[in-house]
TrEMBL record:
Gene of this entry: gspI
Domain of life of the source: Bacteria
Name recorded for this polypeptide: Type II secretion system protein I
Alphabetical list of PROSITE patterns matching this protein: PROKAR_NTER_METHYL (PS00409)
Organism annotation: Motiliproteus coralliicola
Predominant subcellular localization, coarse grouping: membrane
Amino acid sequence: MVEIDSENQQGFTLIELLVAVAIVGFALSALLINVMGNIGGSEHLRNKTIANWVAMNQLELAQINNRYFGQLPLGVETGTEIMAGQEWFWQLRTTQTPDRAFFRVEVTVYGNSSTDKAPMAYLQGALGNFER
């Protein structure tokens, strides 16, 4: 039988290596879960940003139609817009304010055609009553 001199022993034991591998495995799995959560969050932020662009486009179109063509849609108008390869559903609501010279315009954007869910973007503005 061969005796091992404990004073000259170098390196790690098998138990120490297994514990180290287990710790690294747990740390990597926790990191992976965190990264996957961040990826889902960034997708949501991307969609909210694009929906906000759609809302800004619709508000700008209402301002252009009002100022240059004298067309101001009163009531509710709905439509779709393709942006970033996705179809967005918007709703434009125009109401008269107490000051007859201005109208309130609200734009709501949804990621799908169902307007009963929470909107992805909501924007409001005011338009002047430009009579020709």
